[in-house]
Structures are given as structure tokens and as C-alpha cells.
Design goal:
Blueprint: H1 2-44, H2 59-67, H3 73-78, E1 80-84, H4 91-103, E2 110-114, H5 119-128, E3 134-138, H6 141-148, H7 154-157, E4 158-174, E5 187-189, H8 192-206, E6 211-213, H9 218-226, E7 232-237, H10 242-245, E8 254-256, E9 270-275, E10 288-301, H11 308-322, H12 352-391
Parallel strand pairs: 1-2, 1-3, 5-6, 5-7
Antiparallel strand pairs: 3-10, 4-7, 4-8, 4-10, 9-10
Helix pairs in contact: 5-6, 6-8, 11-12
């Protein structure tokens, strides 16, 4: 009996356990079904965007919002060219400002002059600085940079756009120094950025040496020569230079030194001269002092045709050549009257866009000339017919 009760209790315990497990499975099944239904409902609900899923504006839209109505950066850059000139007070700086005033055409073309140091450094800047498109330089700067810095094929890496004016070799010295050969071993002031390159070229070609002071600036160098602290001052500058014309020389102790047109320099320079009309204080009345001159050029890197830089400079060239007559008007620098757009510079190549413009202009001029000739022939023939009619011939 006791065994029966114990056995019955065990069976009852297993029965309860089984029914509990069944109920648990039923509940789990119900929970799983409920969870699936909940998931299904959640898939149908709209997703509320959070910071991570919010779409950010495009860079162009963001730029437009922050820049407001400023001109397009791309358009401005495509229409802007830079020209490196020289320190304020010289012809280059003034002529750069003239081009900016005359050639600027809104967003289509903007000329941005930059103050430079001088001819040789300008040429280096044209070669090396990304922000420089073109600049003023003397034609002999190519030889100086080529030899001083051992740069091969430099004459094919840079081009010229136009010859701007002549720079005559001015040498101020005491009367006992008659010609440039008398400067052998003497102390000569030739400021690094203004004069040193041309003097080095000249002395190298003539196989001369001298004690060259390139650190003293041009005005101080002239003052030292006048004070007897040096033998001569050298500089390639356009005549007539106020700096020289204003030198007080009442006693006649100083003069301009002659530079003969030696065969050794004829491929680099060309003959020039000073008269008393140029410098009455340094040249005696009726006398002429022979010297040489070098071409002052507007130079440019030889950009490959079709590149962005080439296209920008070509746009500038078309504006410069097409509006050049505006640079000859009163108020512009007088050296523009010496500029030659078609002059050929020995040893250098003209920038292709400039060459193309000149070729097109020559063709147009030839066609117009031919048209005038045909019109003249027609007019003469009509006059002949009228003469025959009047005289019955």
C-alpha cells in the first residue's frame, strides 16, 4: 500500500512535469508567433530617419550656399592670367598696370600684374612658379640663366609674345674711362636683379673680368660712383632715363662710356647710341656715344597647345594684339610707342598663339589690299569708258 502511494506520487509528478512542459512549449510557440507578427508589423511601419541616415547636401550645393552670389571659381580661374613685372617705379610695373586697365574683360579675361624683382629672376619665375603665366624679361636673360644654372634647351622652353622696347647699355664713369675695355679689373656697380645678368654676359663674351658689386642697389651705386667710391655703374635701361638725365655734372667729370659693336656680341645685342639730345649733362653737344642695346620682351612658358594654361594665354594674346591701339593713347606708358608686335628675336621662338594671330592679320590685310586694287581697276576702267563715250572713241 505504501509502495502504491509512492509509485502513484511519482507518476503524478511526471504527469505534472509533462503538462508544465507542454504548457511552456505552447507559450513559447505563442511568443514566437507574437514576435514574428511584431516583426512583420515593424517592417510595414515607416522608418524615422536619424542623423546617420539623413542625406547630406552635395559639395556643389554646399559651396553655393556658403558662397552666395560670388562669381564662379572655375570661370574666374579660366579667365585670369598673371604677369610678373618689376619693382614699382620702372616701366615694367607701369606697363603691367596699363594692360590690366585696358585688357580686362569681366569674367572673360582678367589680367593680374605681379611685382617681380628683375629680368633674370622673372625668367626663373616663369619657369618654376605655378602662379606665373608670363612676364617681362630681357632677351639676354635666357643666356644668363642657361649658363648660370646649367639649364639645357632653355630657348625652347620659353617663348616671347612681343618685343616691348629697347634697353640700352648705360655705363656711367669718370672721363678717363673711355671705353668698356678700360673697365678691366675695375670696380663696377651692377645690381643683381637689374643689371648683373647683362654685365656678366657682356664680360663673358668680351673675355673681361672686373670687381662687380651686385649687392648695392642702383641709386646707391650711382651715388658711390659720383662720390669716387667706385669706377663705373652699369645698367640696361630704356632711354631717356630720368635717373641719368638728372645727374648733376656741371664740372664735366663724368660721361657715358662707349660700348663698341664687337663681333663677339652681335648675335646677342644690336647697335645703339646716345646723343646730347638724350643726355645733355653727360654727352657733349654734337657728339655721339656708341653703345649696344638688348630687346625687352614679354615672355611666356612654352605651354603645350590645347592645355588650359595655353588657352588662357592665347585669350590674353588675342586681347593684347586686338586692342593694342588703346595702349598708345595718352595716359599710358610712353614705351608702348616703341613696342613691335611683329619683331623677330634671334634665337627665340614666338608663342604660337601670337604667331597665329599675326599670320591671320597678314592674310586679312593682303585680302583687303587685293580688294582695293580690284576696286581701283574697276574705277579706272569705268573712267576709261566714260572718256570714250564723251569723245566718241
Amino acid at each position: 500500500m505504501r509502495w502504491f502511494v509512492g509509485t502513484a506520487g511519482v507518476f503524478m509528478w511526471f504527469a505534472l512535469l509533462a503538462s508544465g512542459a507542454s504548457a511552456q512549449r505552447t507559450n513559447m510557440i505563442n511568443i514566437d508567433a507574437s514576435l514574428r507578427n511584431s516583426i512583420g508589423e515593424s517592417e510595414k511601419r515607416p522608418v524615422i530617419p536619424t542623423q546617420a541616415t539623413t542625406r547630406r547636401p552635395s559639395p556643389a550645393a554646399e559651396q553655393s550656399r556658403t558662397d552666395g552670389t560670388l562669381p564662379s571659381r572655375e570661370q574666374l580661374n579660366n579667365g585670369t592670367v598673371t604677369i610678373i613685372t618689376a619693382p614699382v617705379g620702372g616701366a615694367y610695373a607701369a606697363m603691367g598696370a596699363d594692360m590690366a586697365a585696358v585688357l580686362d574683360d569681366g569674367d572673360n579675361l582678367r589680367v593680374l600684374p605681379m611685382l617681380g624683382k628683375g629680368s633674370a629672376q622673372n625668367l626663373i619665375d616663369i619657369l618654376r612658379l605655378r602662379s606665373v603665366d608670363m612676364g617681362f624679361a630681357l632677351s639676354d636673360a635666357v643666356e644668363f640663366v642657361k649658363t648660370e644654372y646649367n639649364v639645357p634647351n632653355l630657348d625652347s622652353r620659353v617663348n616671347y609674345i612681343a618685343k616691348v622696347f629697347n634697353a640700352d647699355f648705360h655705363i656711367l664713369a669718370r672721363k678717363e674711362i673711355a671705353t668698356i675695355r678700360d673697365l678691366e679689373g675695375k670696380k663696377v656697380f651692377a645690381e643683381r636683379n637689374l643689371s648683373y645678368a647683362s654685365l656678366r654676359n657682356l664680360f663673358n663674351r668680351l673675355h673681361m673680368t672686373a670687381d662687380i658689386d651686385s649687392k648695392t642697389d642702383d641709386v646707391a651705386g650711382i651715388q658711390k660712383v659720383l662720390a669716387g667710391e667706385g669706377d663705373a655703374w652699369f645698367g640696361p635701361i630704356g632711354k631717356v632715363a630720368p635717373l641719368f638725365r638728372n645727374i648733376k655734372n656741371d664740372e664735366g667729370r663724368f660721361h657715358l662710356v662707349a660700348v663698341p659693336y664687337d663681333k663677339a656680341i652681335q648675335d646677342l645685342y644690336f647697335p645703339s647710341a646716345f646723343t646730347s639730345a638724350d643726355y645733355p649733362n653727360l654727352v657733349a653737344p654734337g657728339e655721339t656715344v656708341d653703345t649696344v642695346a638688348v630687346s625687352s620682351l614679354l615672355m611666356v612658358y612654352n605651354w603645350p597647345v590645347g592645355t588650359d594654361r595655353y588657352n588662357r594665354v592665347a585669350k590674353f594674346v588675342n586681347a593684347l594684339f586686338g586692342k593694342f591701339d588703346l595702349l598708345l593713347q595718352p595716359g599710358r606708358h610712353p614705351k608702348w610707342r616703341e613696342t613691335s608686335l611683329s619683331a623677330t628675336i634671334p634665337g627665340l621662338q614666338r608663342f604660337k598663339a601670337a604667331e597665329d594671330w599675326l599670320a591671320q592679320a597678314n592674310q586679312t590685310q593682303a585680302a583687303e589690299t587685293k580688294g582695293l586694287r580690284e576696286a581701283d581697276k574697276a574705277q579706272l576702267f569705268n573712267e576709261f569708258l566714260e572718256w570714250r563715250r564723251r569723245f566718241n572713241r
